[in-house]
Design brief:
alpha/beta, Rossmann fold, elongated, 7 helices, about 20% strand, 3 domains, single chain, three-stranded mixed beta sheet, 11 strands, Ubiquitin-like (UB roll), eight-stranded mixed beta sheet
């Protein structure tokens, strides 16, 4: 019976053996570093989560549209709920939702951490640009959003938009306002942009007819501006009103819808 030949172990060349040892040393070093980093991270995380240094001590409400007393009350209530808790364990989204319920007129609410121990809530509120109604008035912002928490009696200087069914507006499933209200809001924006309101007071904007938007000056003069080209028509109106030959107490209306300005006497 023939004898089986013993297999000789394969010997790597010296340069490959050196490379193998070098790779093993590098892998060992990486493993040691990873273990050390894990231990450091665990220690730091434990310190962060257990240390009093990161416990909520202050809740700051930032807004330029609510008075200091209301802001302080909200801050104290949130501090009662979250005070002493670790800042990294606080659900900022829950705080944002709570503030949205308290301040329905807030357009945007951003809640963030102010390390080491603060929660900061920034509230950006919708600003009223007009009142809508005929008998009862409702403040609205530039998007037609009804600001239910604001008392209209404190906004006497704002123009009133008439000819709008506000209940129908608020019942819309879409956030888009009706054409009539949209044109009235656009006119008010153009009035502000043209600085017309700094020289002349506008009491009412009648948006009952979308094809013929009308507004009234403080002295009762009716201005028929239509539904387009507000910027240029307001420039023509401003120039007309500054004409020294114009006797305002004898004018019933000014019509800007045509090429030439039409002035109707009383």
């Amino acid at each position: 019976m023939a004898k089986q030949k013993k297999r000789r172990p394969i010997k790597l060349p010296p340069y490959l053996m050196a490379a193998k040892e070098k790779v093993l040393r590098i892998l060992l070093g990486v493993i040691i570093i990873l273990i050390a980093a894990g231990l450091i991270f665990a220690g730091v995380w434990t310190f962060i989560m257990k240390s009093d240094y990161f416990k909520v001590a202050t809740v700051e409400i930032r807004s330029d549209f609510i008075n200091e007393g209301v802001a302080a009350s909200t801050s104290n209530e949130l501090l009662r709920l979250y005070g002493g808790k670790n800042v990294f364990g606080v659900n900022l989204s829950n705080i944002s939702r709570s503030l949205s319920a308290i301040y329905p007129d807030a357009k945007d609410i951003v809640v963030s951490l102010g390390l080491p121990d603060r929660i900061i809530a920034k509230l950006i509120f919708r600003r009223p640009v007009a009142l809508v109604g005929d008998n009862k008035y409702y403040p609205i912002d530039e998007e037609g959003f009804v600001l239910s928490s604001i008392n209209y009696k404190s906004l006497k200087d704002l123009p009133v938009i008439s000819g709008i069914d506000i209940r129908r507006e608020t019942a819309r499933r879409s956030r888009k306002v009706s054409r009539n209200l949209g044109l009235a809001i656009e006119l008010i924006k153009k009035l502000k942009a043209s600085r017309f309101l700094t020289s002349w007071s506008v009491n009412t904007v009648d948006a009952g007819d979308a094809k013929n938007i009308v507004f009234y000056l403080k002295d009762g003069v009716e201005v028929r501006i239509g539904a387009e080209d507000y910027t240029n028509r307001l420039k023509v109106l401003d120039k007309t009103l500054h004409d020294t030959r114009l006797l305002m107490d004898r004018i019933k209306y000014i019509d800007l819808r045509f090429k030439d300005v039409v002035i109707g006497p009383k």
